[in-house]
Write a structure and sequence with these properties.
alpha/beta; Rossmann fold; six-stranded mixed sheet; 21 helices; ATP hydrolysis activity; ATP binding; nucleotide-binding
Length: 564
C-alpha cells in the first residue's frame, strides 16, 4: 500500500490522506442491551500529520482508535462507516487480513506498557518478533535489528536491555520498547493511545519528543489519542474534539485554541491546568485571617532507610519543610523521588530512621497504642484511584460510615446524620447512599473518598495524586471542591503530585524532591517564577501547553463546571 497523489480541479496534486474515516459508528453489547459509543464521525489524517482525538472518558476516543486498527473488544462492533487506509477500504476486513497490515502499514502504541509486553519473554525477542511476523527477517538477523531499534529509540546499552525482561525496565523504558515495535517496519500511520498518561512529566516530554523525531524522519502520520489538552496543543497539527461519541469541532490546533466554537471545547480548555498558566486561586495567606497561623506540619531532617539485599536504601535523605495551618503544601517530583515515603511518615504509617516529624504539636516518635489510633482522626488520606480504595461490596453509606464505627462511639441516628451531611458537603445527592462504587463515575467515586476522609472531622488531608487519574473537567471540579472545603473548614492539605500544572494552580507552597532530597522549596510563585535548581527548571520546562500563550479564563477555581 503506497501513498497516491490526488488530482485537484485546479490541476494541483496533493498526497492522498493516509487515513480517511467517514460515518464511523461503533457500538457495544452488554446485558443491558446495545450502547452506541461512536456516532457517525468523519475526519482525515494526511501524510506526516499529527491529528489528536481529544475528549473525556466515554467520548469515544479509544473506541475510534480501536475500530481503525481492528482491535475492538469482543463485545464491540463496527456498525457502519468507512475506514480508508492509504486509499484502501479496510472496514470489515477479517482479523487475519488485518494482521497483515498491523505493524507494517498501521501500528499502535498502547497506553499501558506494563500490560502490553509479555512478562516471560525478553525485550529483544519481543522486538524481533515484528520482523518475523511480517517475513522481513528472522533469527540472529532479526535480533540484531531489534538491538539496533532499541538504540534508535534511546535505550542506553541496548544489547543489555535486549536480554532483560519487562519487569526490569522502568515505565519510560518500556514505553520506548513499544515505540521501537511500532516504528520497526516504518508504517504509514501510528496510533498512539494515551502513550504517556502513566509517565512522569519529564519522561512524558522525552517520549513525545522521541515520537516527534521519528515521525519527522520517517514521514509517518500520527493519530494521537489523549485527554491532555496541553499535550495535544503542543504536538498536534489538528484537533478533533469528541463528546459522547460525536465530533463537537475539528480544525487546525491554533485556530481552535484561539477561538473555540463549541461550548464543550471552551469548557475543556478552561479546565486544562497546563493551558491556564496564569490562572490561580486566591492564595490561602490572602484570605480571611487564620485564627491559628502556626505550622501544623513540621518535618525536620527526615531520613528514611529501607533494608535492601542485606544493605539499605535511603528513600528520603534529610528532608525538611513546614506547612502553615489552613494552607496547601505540595510535594512534587518524579517516581522514586521520595514523595510517597515522606507522606507515609507524616501520616505515622512508619517511623523515621532519623529526624523529627511534628503534626499539630505532636511528636510522632512518641505516638503508640491508643494515642496513635486517635491521631489518625487528625490526618486522613485520599488516594489516586478511588475505585481501588473503595470496597466494591459496600454501599456508599457504609463506605463513608465505616471510619465512624472505628473511631467515634456515637448513636446510629447520629452516624446517619453525619454521613448524609458529609455526602452533601462534597456535592453528592442522598440517593447515592445505597449505590455501590461501580455504579458511580470516577469523579463521584473520588468525592466519596473525600467524604470518607472528612467524616471524622480531620484537620489535615493528605492527597496522594488524588486528581491525576481524572479527566480534565472532572479534575477541575474536584480541585474546586477541595478549594471550597479548605475555605469552609480551615483544612490543611499535603498535596502529592507529579503534575506541576495542577500544583501551580492549587498549592500555596511547594517542595521539589529529587532522589530523596529537597532541591527547591518556597512559595509556588517564587519556585515557578525563579527556580533555583536545574532539576526544577527541567520539570517546569516539561509542562505541556507552552506552544500557545495562556488562555484568559476565570481567576478562581470555584464554579468549574458541574458535578461529574
Amino acid at each position: 500500500m503506497t501513498i497516491q497523489p490526488v488530482n485537484r480541479p485546479n490541476g494541483e496534486t496533493q498526497p492522498a490522506a493516509v487515513l480517511e474515516v467517514s460515518g464511523l459508528t461503533v457500538s457495544y453489547r452488554d446485558r443491558n442491551g446495545t450502547r452506541t459509543a461512536v456516532r457517525g464521525i468523519d475526519f482525515r489524517v494526511d501524510p506526516g500529520e499529527v491529528v489528536a482525538l481529544v475528549g473525556e472518558s466515554g467520548s469515544g476516543k479509544s473506541s475510534t482508535a480501536q475500530a481503525i486498527i481492528g482491535l475492538l473488544p469482543e463485545n464491540g462492533r463496527l456498525e457502519k462507516g468507512s475506514i480508508r487506509l492509504n486509499r484502501q477500504e479496510i472496514a470489515g476486513w477479517p482479523q487475519k487480513r488485518l494482521d497483515g497490515i498491523r505493524g507494517s502499514i498501521v501500528s499502535l502504541i498502547p497506553q499501558d506498557p506494563g500490560n502490553a509486553l509479555n512478562p516471560v519473554k525478553t525485550i529483544g525477542k519481543q522486538v524481533a518478533e515484528i520482523f518475523a511476523i511480517h517475513d522481513q527477517s528472522s533469527g540472529p538477523v532479526a535480533y540484531a535489528q531489534a538491538i539496533e531499534l532499541l538504540g534508535r529509540v534511546g535505550l542506553y546499552q541496548p544489547t543489555v536491555r535486549a536480554q532483560q525482561y519487562p519487569h526490569e525496565l522502568s515505565g519510560g523504558m518500556k514505553q520506548r520498547v513499544l515505540i521501537a515495535i511500532a516504528i520497526a517496519l516504518r508504517p504509514s500511520l501510528i496510533i498512539a493511545d494515551e502513550p504517556t498518561s502513566a509517565l512522569d512529566v519529564t519522561v512524558q516530554k522525552h517520549i513525545l519528543d522521541l515520537i516527534d523525531a521519528l515521525r519527522r524522519e520517517y514521514g509517518t502520520a500520527l493519530l494521537l489519542v489523549t485527554h491532555d489538552l496541553g499535550v495535544a496543543a503542543d504536538r498536534a497539527d489538528k484537533l478533533v474534539v469528541l463528546q459522547h461519541g460525536r465530533i463537537q469541532e475539528q480544525g487546525r490546533t491554533g485556530e481552535i485554541l484561539r477561538a473555540p466554537q463549541s461550548a464543550y471545547t471552551r469548557q475543556l480548555l478552561a479546565n486544562a491546568p497546563s493551558l491556564n498558566a496564569g490562572r490561580r486561586r486566591v492564595p490561602a495567606a490572602a484570605r480571611a485571617p487564620a485564627t491559628e497561623p502556626d505550622d501544623i506540619i513540621v518535618v525536620e531532617n527526615l531520613i528514611q532507610d529501607f533494608g535492601l539485599g542485606g544493605g539499605h536504601f535511603r528513600a528520603v535523605d534529610d528532608i525538611s519543610f513546614r506547612v502553615r495551618r489552613g494552607t496547601t503544601h505540595a510535594l512534587v517530583g518524579e517516581s522514586g523521588s521520595g514523595k510517597t515515603t515522606t507522606i507515609r511518615t507524616v501520616a505515622a504509617f512508619q517511623k523515621p530512621t532519623a529526624g523529627n516529624v511534628f503534626v499539630d504539636g505532636l511528636d510522632l516518635a512518641c505516638l503508640g497504642g491508643e494515642t496513635l489510633r486517635l491521631f489518625r482522626k487528625k490526618i486522613q488520606l485520599v488516594y489516586q484511584n478511588p475505585f481501588g480504595s473503595l470496597d466494591p461490596r459496600q454501599t456508599i453509606a457504609r463506605v463513608v460510615e465505616e471510619p465512624l464505627l472505628n473511631f467515634d462511639p456515637i448513636s446510629r441516628a447520629e452516624r446517619v446524620e453525619r454521613v448524609a451531611s458529609t455526602l452533601e458537603r462534597v456535592g453528592l445527592t442522598l440517593d447515592m447512599l445505597q449505590r455501590r462504587p461501580h455504579a458511580l463515575s470516577g469523579g463521584q467515586r473520588q468525592r466519596v473518598a473525600i467524604a470518607r476522609a472528612l467524616v471524622l472531622g480531620p484537620q489535615i488531608l493528605v492527597l496522594d495524586e488524588a486528581v491525576s487519574a481524572l479527566d480534565v473537567t472532572v479534575q477541575a471540579q474536584i480541585l474546586a471542591l477541595l478549594d471550597k472545603l479548605q475555605r469552609e473548614l480551615g483544612l490543611t492539605y499535603l498535596f502529592v503530585s507529579h503534575d506541576l500544572a495542577v500544583v501551580r494552580q492549587i498549592a500555596d507552597t511547594v517542595s521539589v524532591l529529587k532522589e530523596g532530597k529537597v532541591v527547591d522549596s518556597g512559595p509556588v510563585e517564587a519556585v515557578f517564577g525563579d527556580p533555583q535548581h536545574p532539576y526544577t527548571r527541567e520539570l517546569i520546562a516539561a509542562i505541556p501547553g507552552k506552544k500557545y500563550p495562556p488562555i484568559p479564563r476565570r481567576s478562581s477555581l470555584t464554579g468549574a463546571g458541574t458535578n461529574p
